[in-house]
């Protein structure tokens, strides 16, 4: 299993980023996918989960209405559109497939003025 996250960066509050996670080594369409994040000094938390077909999602309350997860099973890729970024969204963001223990290297998102 390989997960490669990309798309992070340094943005100002209120701006947007789109993260991508390219997956390989397993049958992507058979698994729920999640985005997690870990801020400095804090535990890793799940931001959002998406069902295998993409029809069901479950968001962390603090990102509801600002973040949108999607997936393209033909491209083995899951996305996270992040709008209205806040200082507290600063973290390393990771994707993960339910049932697999593998993590990617993560992508850093920094929100700063």
Task: Give a verbal description of the structure.
With 113 residues, the protein is an all-beta fold. 0% of the residues lie in helices and 49% in strands. The chain contains no helices and 10 strands. The strands form 2 sheets. The chain has a 6-stranded mixed β-sheet, with no helix packed on it. A 4-stranded antiparallel β-sheet has the order 1-3-8-7, with no helix packed on it. Strand 4 and strand 5 form a beta hairpin. The chain is globular. The mean pLDDT is 97.
Key words describing this protein structure:
four-stranded antiparallel beta sheet, 113 residues, six-stranded mixed beta sheet, 10 strands, mainly beta
Strand order of the largest sheet: 2-10-9-4-5-6
Radius of gyration from the CA trace? 13 Å
State the helical fraction: under 10%
Q: What is the strand content?
A: over 45%
**What value does the average pLDDT take?**
97
Sheet with most strands: 6 strands, mixed
From N to C, what is the helix and strand string?
Answer: EEEEEEEEEE
Unreliable residue stretches: none
The count of helical stretches stands at 0
What is the strand and helix layout of this fold?
Layout: E1 2-6, E2 9-11, E3 17-24, E4 33-38, E5 45-50, E6 57-59, E7 67-72, E8 77-82, E9 91-97, E10 107-111
Parallel strand pairs: 2-10
Antiparallel strand pairs: 1-3, 3-8, 4-5, 4-9, 5-6, 7-8, 9-10
Give a concise summary:
With 113 residues, the chain is mainly β.
